[in-house]
Amino acid sequence: MSIVANLLIGAGLFFLVVSTLALLIMPDLYTRAHAVAKSETLALALLFIGVLFRPELDVPAAGRLMFILAVSVIANPAAVHALLRAAHRSGALPWTVVDQRLADAELGRYRP
Domain range holding 29? Predict the structure, then answer.
């Protein structure tokens, strides 16, 4: 049981690192939010399920963890959707290929 718990917790930590890297790599708000919302929700689920498999966890704590997990799995994507909808309504534009070409041209890396 402890090995399964450690593997699930390790996988959850891996997806948290992936979500952190997505914040650094992705070019705009829309792609960052999409990448982070997906990997962060999966990471949270894996971490909580891994903690549920720990032998020293008692039943009341497991119930609270399952409740927090259920609320988080519902609330996280909904919050990201609301954030992106507000960004779209306020006029935030997505990153385009033209933007990338202009940035590359300014740095001297783009040659048509």
Answer: 2-107
Q: What is the pLDDT of residue 95?
A: 77
Three-state DSSP at 52 gives helix
Residue partners of 30: CB distance under 8 A and separation at least 6: 84, 87, 92, 94, 95
**Total structural domains within the chain:** 1
> Using CA atoms, how far apart are residues 57 and 25, in angstroms rounded to an integer?
37
**pTM exceeding the 0.90 threshold for the entire prediction:** no
Residue 112 lies in a domain: no
Nearest 5 degrees, angle CA 14-CA 43-CA 27? 75
Has residue 57 been placed in a domain? yes
